[in-house]
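Per your request, structure below.
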């Protein structure tokens, strides 16, 4: 790997951790299109995005979803279903992360909200390997907004070209590249193993 690189920046969901977006509606018993059709899932997704940028608190988020779901579910049930999106560590990537961190600084950059992040902290051993974590709800912006990548570089005191960003979504990688970073679209662990080819 080019020795100019100093930081390997990882996305969280579908890279470091397994997530299941279907777990949210399924957790409310909404397993079919017919069961979901009475509810405005576009509005739900919009509300999630606002929450993930830290513009509304968890309580405000739950109040809004309580209304969107037509008061059919308690706020506690909604939160439990929403948090069930977070599943478990990606065990396959742990040895690679442990290897990379011996040679490079590592960090996390994730679009997430406070309740999801709190669950990650409870259940994940992998994230304890990362000394630097950047979340959208703390940054006040989401990938692929340029300000997100700028804030990461500023905080870590590195230039964008010194960073490799690994994310499962091409639009987030495109945003990072536009900001001057290097990027890899994550497909599986094999797609990034080459990072350590000259370091083993």
């Amino acid at each position: 790997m080019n020795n100019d690189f100093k930081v390997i920046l990882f996305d969280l969901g579908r890279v470091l951790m397994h997530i299941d977006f279907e777990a949210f509606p399924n957790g409310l018993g909404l397993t079919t299109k017919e069961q979901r059709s009475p509810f405005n899932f576009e509005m739900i997704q919009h509300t999630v995005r606002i929450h993930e940028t830290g513009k509304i608190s968890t309580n405000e988020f739950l109040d809004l979803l309580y209304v969107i779901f037509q008061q059919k579910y308690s706020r506690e049930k909604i939160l439990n279903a929403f948090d069930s999106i977070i599943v478990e560590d990606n065990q396959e990537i742990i040895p690679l992360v442990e290897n990379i961190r011996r040679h490079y600084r590592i960090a996390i950059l994730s679009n997430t909200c406070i309740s999801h992040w709190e669950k990650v902290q409870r259940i994940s051993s992998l994230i304890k390997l990362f000394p630097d974590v950047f979340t959208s709800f703390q940054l006040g912006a989401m990938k692929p907004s340029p300000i997100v990548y700028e804030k990461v570089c500023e905080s870590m005191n590195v230039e964008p070209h010194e960073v490799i960003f690994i994310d499962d979504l091409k639009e987030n990688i495109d945003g990072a590249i536009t900001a001057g970073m290097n990027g890899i679209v994550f497909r599986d662990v094999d797609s990034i193993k080459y990072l350590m080819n000259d370091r083993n």
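Residues 41-52 form the longest helix (12 residues).

Regards,
D.
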